[in-house]
Every structure is written in C-alpha cells, then in structure tokens.
Design a protein that fits this description.
The complex is a heterodimer of chains A (112) and B (168). Chain A has a domain of 78 residues: Alpha-Beta Plaits. Chain A has three helices and five strands; from the N terminus they run H-E-H-E-E-H-E-E. Chain B is of the alpha/beta class. The chains are: A alpha+beta (112), B alpha/beta (168). Chains A and B meet through strand 1 of A and strand 5 and helix 5 of B.
Amino acid sequence: MPLWFARGLRRGVVTTRYPARPDGSAVALPTPPAFRPLLLTREIVDRMIAQCPGTALSRAADTLVFDVGSCTACGRCARVAPHAVTPSGEFELAATTRSALIKMVPILGERR
Amino acid sequence: MTPGPDEATTAERLRAQIAAQFGRSLHIRTLDTGSCAVCEQEIRLLSAPHYDLHRLGFFFTPAPRHADLLLVAGPMVRAFEVAARKAYEAMPGPKVVVATGACALGGVYQADPFMHGEVEAVLPVDVWIPGCPPSPLALLHGLSVAVGRLAEKVPGLAFVADENGGGA
C-alpha cells in the first residue's frame, strides 16, 4: 500500500489540499463576461439582451441585470459590443444563495 | 435581524457539527434530470487523474441511500420529478443538494408543460454551480464550498471591468 494512500486513509481527508496550486488549464476556459459601465448605453444593452440565448441579461432602467447563474459564457454579448464586454476570467462561481449570482451593472455610457 | 448570543452559539455548534459530519468524507449521487449530458461529462472527469476528486475525500455512490450530496444537472423535466423526489427522500440526513449548470439554475429553459426549467422548483437547493458546463475545477470548488472547506468567491465579484480591460 503506497504511503500517501495509508496517510490519506488514516487522516480521512486528503493527500493534498485543494487547490494545491492554480491550475494552468484554467486560462483556456470560457468565462462569463465582465462589462465596462462607461461604454454601455441602453441601446447597446438592449442589443446584447436580444442576442442572449438564455435569460442571463435583462435591463431595469439604467441598470444591466446580469444573472451569472444563467450565463452559458457563449460570448454573443461580447460579439455585439467587443469594446464594452470582456471575459471575466472567473470560473469558480459556486454560491450558497441564488441571489448572490445576480449582479447589477450600472449603464453609464449615456452621460457622455 | 442580528442574531442573538444564543443563535450565534447554535449556528457555531451547527457549523462544527456539519464540519465533523461532512468535512472528512462525502458520498455523491449524481442525478441527470434531462441535461444534454455535458454536465455529466464534466462530472465524470472529476474521477480522472488530473482532477482526482477522491484525494479530497469525495466519492461517487450509485445509491441515494448511501449519499450525502445530490449533484443535480439538467432543467428538471417533469417526467423526472417523481424520481428526483424519491432520490432526495431516500437520502439519509443531513443532506445537501447541489444544482449544477445553467439549465439546473434556470437560465436556459423556461417552465413549460414538459419541464420545470430549474431544479429549485422541485428540490431544496443548497449550493448553485453556474457554468455551461461547469468545468471540473468549478465543480471541485463548488463541492468544497458545499462542505464548507472553501469560501464562495462570487458575492465579492461585480463583473465590471475597468476601461483598460482586466477581470471582474
């Protein structure tokens, strides 16, 4: 029996803690978008909402409501406005409340 | 409402109890409630050497009777509702339900005569793991959050980028 296996059995948990180190393969993962509020206008946001295949994006007056839980990271909103949308790079998104996944992004582009 | 001293002690005791019961080893039963099977693909990859979830004390079990955690993928088609409820009721307590993927979180399908559109409509969900599909790394993080080994990151993220780019 390998030593690490015996140690793991005795302590009951792990042979390494997680995460032992950042995983190099994570950079290639598609991730939900991050928005640039100063470059968002209501018109751009409405076009992004029209392109969203699910229910991840919606608008309440001058706020873009982004439901991270509904986002499939398909990148269609980024194709509508490449200057205003960028991949967030976040993929460890587990939440213990559903409301923690709903993000309010202010639309500030109208003021320019 | 701020918790009083009694509630704080009770919460602390419950946390310790959960850590004692779930912190060491946890058995997972997966449930496909009409998903496209890509979530299952990623869940299967957790057993592969690169991710190796057994090193963290997580194990898959074929029977809900032996499971502590129900890992549910898919938009909960109505045809699966009875089976999902039975699987949940068969699990011994304390039990945790984890909704996995955008379908399970209600992002892809609307409620209609064929499906509920989200897992929450049928089972009490404790942890939500977004992603389409969630990568094995995201699943490992979600399982660690479910047993309280890692803190959730998403409440601190705004998904707002600065002018020059950069992350959330």
